[in-house]
Amino acid sequence: MRLRTRLTVTVTLVALAAVAVTALLSVQVASRRVGRLLEAPAATGPAVAGTPAASAPAAPLGGRGPGAGRAGAGPPAGSAAGAGAGSGASAPGPAGAAARRATLLRDLLHANLQSAGIALLLAAAAGTLLAARMARPLKRLSAVANRYAAGERSVRADARGRDEVAEVGTAFNALADRLQAEEEQQRRLIADIAHELRTPLTVLKGELEALEDGLLESTPETHRRLGEEVTLLTRLVQDLRLLTQAESGALSLRRAPVDLRSLVLEVTASFEAHARGRELRVEAGPDAITVDGDADRLRQVLVNLLDNAARHAPGGSPIEVTLRRADGRASLQVRDHGPGIPETELELVFGRFYRTDEARTRAGGGSGLGLSIVRSLVTLHGGTVSAANHPEGGAVLSLSLPLAGQAPARGAAA
User: 26: burial class by Cβ within 10 Å (0-12, 13-18, 19+)?
Assistant: First the structure.
């Protein structure tokens, strides 16, 4: 039961109990007192006609009547004595009625005070029980949170039940899982960066020490190898910086209408010159496809896609680029004729430092950040990117971008 419902039911039951006790005590007091109040005037009121008291002559004013002698002075004194000796509630006349009313009100007040005390005790007992039941899981959740803050990343809260405390426990577990996954991703990233930097740095150190010791001649070939390692390090650092900026939202975009068809033709024409003899088949259609984005960043996306296809396709095989409109969006596909991507790794190819072939060298496999940059830049433009295998062989990398006027306002204009 949810806490709100539990509290509502508890308060309602306490109120019903208080009302029931009050009504019960009031009925008991009324049954004892009201009947007496109604019967007392008939029993103690004026005498009925025909009785001796009714036939006695009234005493004249001033006490000088026939009954004003010494013998007649007894009854008033006796009556006064009887009134003083008896109860005020049984006295005849208005004074007796007032006394009876005061007694009834006093008894009703006492009954209400008793009912209020009983209701207070019931409410305190119910509130204490409910507070204890509510505080127990909150204390357990607090203990779990303290343990997690102390470094126990595997601890989780007990999220059984359907109330708000269980919802808080579920949210805490989800947050802990996400933080643990992010920490593991950070550790893997640092390990991958260290692994990627180790090889070129080791090569540079070995080559420089060999040159210093005279074991290696200072030839143009040696300088070229050292320059390649420095270039690889520079590209890796630049890619990491770009990827970090894109994922954190710190990368600014110079948004403007971009003719994606012209951009594709331009990039493929310049890429074909160093495509290692591969034929680029471009199917872009005759009509312009305009998107709202940063032309330089979109150019980098296309270059990374073509470079990835050229690295994984066998020599001499074509690379097919297809651009078209699909469902009100711009759709671009880059297909190679290589071995394709294992089905279990289709969602992993856009991860950092991911390579489908673990044995592939860094010189042949790139920095491993190209497709990660593609995904980040496309996402920054409000698009999506995916990987699939073509039925006739090879991998197909597809991206979808909103047409001009439909892009979300992401990325601040520089």
Answer: middle
